Predict the structure.
Amino acid sequence: MISVSLVRTVLRPSERSRVSGVLLAAACAITLSTVTACTPEMRARAYAGDGRADWQEADRVIASLGLERGDRVADLGSGGGYFTFLLADAVGPTGRVYAIDVAEDMNERLAGIAAERGYGQVETVLAEPDDARIPSGGVDLVFTSNTYHHIDDREAYFRKLSESLREGGRLAVIDYKEEGFIQGLLGHSTDDSLIQTELESAGYELVAQHDFIEKQHFLIFVPGPE
C-alpha cells in the first residue's frame, strides 16, 4: 500500500494535499471495516484533504443557493462540517442548520466545534442509513455534497426525504464527476444524468444545474407535482 509519507516525497506541493487526503480517506475506509478505525480528526482531515478550497467555489455555491435569514437547512452528510458553518452564516442566528451524518463520533466533533465558535443555530442529527431523520417542521433546503454516491436505494431514500421539505423547498446535490483515477478507484462519483434520472423517479424536477465547479456536478431539484 502506498504511504502518505511517500506521496509527500514524490509529488509536487500542489498535488500533495489532494492525493494524501484521498489515501488517508481510503485507509480510513479500510480500517473502519476492521478492528481499528481512524479518529474523527483524521477522517475530517481526509474529507477536506483534497485541496477543496482551491477548486470547490464554496462561497459561490452558497451564494447560488439564495438562502435567506431564518431559513432551515439540512446539511446531509455533514462529515467534518466543510459546508455546515457556511450554511449557518447564510441563514444567520435566527435560522437552523441540521448537520446530519450517520457517524456519531463525527457529529460529536462537529457539535463541539459549533459550541466553541458560538453557532447556536447548528444542531447535529444522527441519521440512519435509510433515513435522514430530519426533525419535525421540515426544512427549506436539503443540501448534500460528496454524499450522494454513498446512499443505497437512492430513489426510495429521496422519495421519503421529500416529505421533510417545506412548501417551496429544494434539494441541492453536489457530487464528483466520473472523471479521474481516484474517483473511479473509490467509487466516489455519480454521473449527472444518473442523478437526474434517479431523482426524477423519486418525484423531483430539475430546476437548475450549475457548471462552475470544475470537478463536480451541482444540481438543484424541487418536488414535482403530486
